[in-house]
Design a protein that fits this description.
Length: 156
């Protein structure tokens, strides 16, 4: 029996041109002081919703499909954090210099994708380190058990 695919509604779709224009308008509305300093700035809600949709869509791709939900949720949060961190670095002039149309969708998709990959790399590195520490602890405990046994033999 075939699974029924859910039809994508217009609310799932992010129009690249509209999204890019929203990003550009928001960045231009910020003052130079806000961009140069590390002051907190608010990202408009509609841009955050679009970033969330991008992150959710990447998580449903084949690269990240089989990970547990708690890891996916962490990945999504870290991906959105990186998007917020690098949002003001989106520069339409860099695209124009290369004769490329500014593309905010690709910019943020790349940030999220690389953040997800980094998260998984760090997750497995820590997981392997934890397993190594636990196995080393078991080995040490076995050594102590054997030394206690040997000490008991020597004392007798």
């Amino acid at each position: 029996m075939k699974k029924k695919k859910r039809k994508k509604s217009s609310s799932d779709y992010i129009d690249n041109e509209k999204f890019t224009n929203k990003i550009i308008m928001w960045i231009e509305s910020l003052s130079e002081e806000d961009l140069e300093s590390n002051k907190k700035y608010d990202i408009p809600e509609d841009i955050m919703i679009d970033l969330y949709k991008i992150g959710e869509h990447i998580l449903s791709s084949h690269n990240f499909f089989n990970y547990p939900d708690d890891i996916k949720e962490d990945m999504l949060q870290f991906g959105l954090f990186k998007c917020i961190k690098y949002a003001t670095r989106f520069d339409k002039n860099k695209f124009i210099e290369r004769n490329i149309k500014p593309n905010g969708f690709t910019y943020f998709t790349t940030i999220i994708f690389h953040q997800y990959s980094d998260y998984i790399r760090k997750y497995y590195k820590n997981k392997n380190m934890d397993e190594d520490i636990k196995s080393e602890a078991r080995n040490i405990m076995n050594i102590y058990k054997h030394t206690d046994y040997i000490n008991k033999l020597i004392v007798r």
